[in-house]
Amino acid sequence: MQLDGMTRLLPNEYDLLLNCVVELHSFRSRSALCGWLLDHALPGLIPSDWLSYNEVDLLNPGNTTAILKPDSKAFFEQFFPRFKELAYQHPLIVHQMQSANFPVHKISDFLTQEAFHQLELYRDVYRHMDVEYQIAVTVRLSSSHVVAFALSRKEKDYDERDRAVLEMLRPHLVVAFNNLDLIQNHQTIQNGAELALNELSSATLIVNLQGDILYHTGPAMQWLGVRNPEHLPKEISHWLGREPVTGVRENLRWNSAVGEIQIRALPTSSADRRLLVLSRENTRPSNGASLSDLSRRQQEVAHWIREGKTNQEIASILGISPRTVQKHVEHIFEKLGVETRVAIATRML
User: Fold this and answer.
1) Any alpha helices (H) in the chain, and if so which ranges?
2) pLDDT, greater one: 217 or 205
3) Residues 6+ apart with CB under 8 A from 13
4) What is the mean pLDDT of residues 180-206?
5) CA of 111: how far to CAs of 23, 75, 95, 97, 116, in Å?
6) Omega into 70 within 30° of 0, i.e. cis?
7) How many Cβ atoms are within 10 Å of 67's Cβ, its own excluded?
8) Mean pLDDT on 124-151
9) Confidence of residue 281 (pLDDT cuts 50, 70, 90)
């Protein structure tokens, strides 16, 4: 049955599709989303012999990647290199490169079975997989790059019901992939901000007026020496809860195990939340410690600080995490009785 040029689905098929769409937007990583689509969602909607997620780079075939289900190590070792070389022959990719939009298409929309068999792509790759029919839905398209899900069969071509299902699913796939890109970009910015705070010997917390810790960056928890990771120490919570007499809250000086900390409370876009900015005003005075008092790893970190490397660069050089590097930097500050990376570099000289 047709409706506005599109095949109408049965009520239970709409239910399956709706459930798929709801779960589609619950994922927070592309790998998890692709795994679920290939293992559960797409097979439940459209039975197929093979399913794949493909990122095809026509200008740089070596960058082409794919996830194939069922998993086939033999295919990737023997045939996938050839697929990357011949992807430019794929009739669906050829069509997508010539089209501004990217609806769902089958190979049989453009080639007869005989013509498909004449392609090197078929003879060198698909013939060995028993792939005779394929339908694909594209989720990302540029002048030389295609991101798509492909479903393949040996015995029976896909019909208009299969096309309708993928057409209804396609806009939700596009939105889901765009959202995941935004999440990844946000995480990258957040990680960069945390590294910047660490470099400046600063840290932040977002708390509510009751003193509950909602979020923190850098070494904030260590500096405060909090025993309950969900709540501020009573003294700080009490300071935060007092209304400033002059309308401007004075900074709080907090003596911690790493030295004196200055805490500033700044308003946020939410009336019941505050941003606490922690700064290390002073570190413990020098006790005459020398470079020989540093551990081997601390000496390595200090050496690369002298060379002007950031925590991220030092982490890459030493094969450890940036957070571990930051811990070493804090211990170096404490042992040498200095406050800045420049002071560490000077001591190294």
Assistant:
1) 11-24, 30-36, 42-45, 73-78, 80-86, 91-97, 113-117, 120-121, 127-129, 160-199, 220-224, 234-241, 296-306, 311-318, 322-336, 341-348
2) 205
3) 161, 165
4) 71
5) 35, 24, 11, 16, 6
6) yes
7) 17
8) 94
9) low
Residue 84 has pLDDT above 60, yes or no: yes
Sign of CA dihedral 191, 192, 194, 195: positive
Is residue 42 exposed (0-12), middle (13-18) or buried (19+ Cβ within 10 Å)?
A: buried
Question: What is the per-residue pLDDT across 52-72, written as a single tens digit (0 to 9) for each?
Answer: 999 999 999 989 999 999 988
Q: Tokens standing for 144? A: 């030389």
Listed residue (320, 324, 298, 326) closest to 203, CA to CA: 326
pLDDT for 285 equals: 44
Looking at this protein, which amino acid is placed at residue 232? L
- Residue entry with tokens 């390595």: 300
pLDDT at 161 over 60: yes
Instruction: Give the torsion through C-alpha atoms of 159, 164, 170, 172, to 10 deg.
Output: -140
As given in the structure block, the two tokens for residue 148 are 């798509």
Look at residue 191 in the predicted model and tell me its pLDDT: 64
Neighbours of 305 (CB within 10 A): 23
State the average pLDDT over residues 24-36: 91
Q: Would you mind telling me the total number of residues written for the chain in this entry?
A: 349
Q: Around Cβ 297, how many Cβ atoms within 10 Å?
A: 14
Q: Are 279 and 258 in contact (CB under 8 A)?
A: no
